[in-house]
Amino acid sequence: MKELKTSKDLLAFDRSDRVGLRIILWGAIGLIVGGQVYEPLSAWVKGRSLDVPFFSPVQVPELDAVGTGHGLADYPLTVGDPQPLDYLLAIIPGLALLAMAVVGVVLIQRIMKAVAAGDPFAPNQVGRLRWLAALLLVGSIVHTFLTLSCQGAIIGRQDLGGLSPAVSFSLPFFPMLFGMVIAMLAEAFRVGGRLRDDVEGLI
C-alpha cells in the first residue's frame, strides 16, 4: 500500500519564518541606529548643523486679504552653530527609541522560542506579551513626548527673530493599536495557560 503524503501547511510559521523575522527585527534596529543615533552623533563629531522640525504660524497676504484661513507652516529649522547640549538633545530620543526597540526584539525572540519549543502557554509568555504591549502603548507615547520636549528645548535656545513657534502633537495611533491587540492576546494566553493547567490536573 502506498503511504499517504501529508501536504505541507504553507501558512505554518516554521524555522525559516522565524529566522526571517529575526533578520527583519534586527534590521529595523540597524535602521534606528543609523537614522536616530548615528546621524546626530556624526553631526556632533564633524561639527555639522542640525535640522529640527519646526512649526509656526505664517502670513499669506493673498489669503488674508480674502479672509481665507490657513494652517501652520511645517519646515526644518537649521541650527547653524549647535552647542554640545543641542547635539545631546538631538541624540536622546534616538537612544530611548533604540533601548525600547532592543527590549521589544528580545521579548519577541523569547516568545518565538517558547512557541518553537512547543510550549506557547508557558507561564512567562503572558508577562512577555504584557511587557511588549506596554512598550507599544506607553513607550510610544513617552517617546513622542520626549522627542517633542528635546526638539522644543533645542528650538528654545535659538534666536527666532521674534517668531513664535507652534506645537503640533499627534498620538502614535498604530503603535497604540498594536499594543492593545497584543494586550488582548496576552489575556488569551493567560486563559489558555489556565485551561491547560486544569486539563493537566485532570489527567
Tell me the strand order in the biggest sheet.
1-2
Q: Report the end-to-end length measured between terminal Cα atoms.
A: 37 Å
Tally the structural domains. 1
Give the class from helix and strand content and strand pairing. Answer: mainly alpha
State the major sheet. 2 strands, antiparallel
Number of strands: 2
The rounded Rg comes to: 24 Å
Strand residue percentage: 5-15%
* Low-confidence regions: none
Q: What's the tally of helices?
A: 5
Coarse morphology: elongated
Q: What is the overall pLDDT average?
A: 85
What is the helix fraction of residues, given as a range? 55-70%
SSE order in H/E notation? HEHEHHH
Can you put this structure into words, describing what you see?
- The chain has one domain.
- The protein contains 5 helices and 2 strands, in the order αβαβααα.
- The protein has helices at 15-46, 61-66, 84-116, 123-156, 173-202; strands at residues 50-56, 73-79.
- The mean pLDDT is 85.
Descriptive labels:
203 residues; mainly alpha; two-stranded antiparallel ribbon; 2 strands; 7% strand
Give the gist of this structure.
With 203 residues, this protein is mainly alpha-helical.
What is the strand and helix layout of this fold?
Layout: H1 15-46, E1 50-56, H2 61-66, E2 73-79, H3 84-116, H4 123-156, H5 173-202
Antiparallel strand pairs: 1-2
Helix pairs in contact: 1-3, 3-4, 4-5
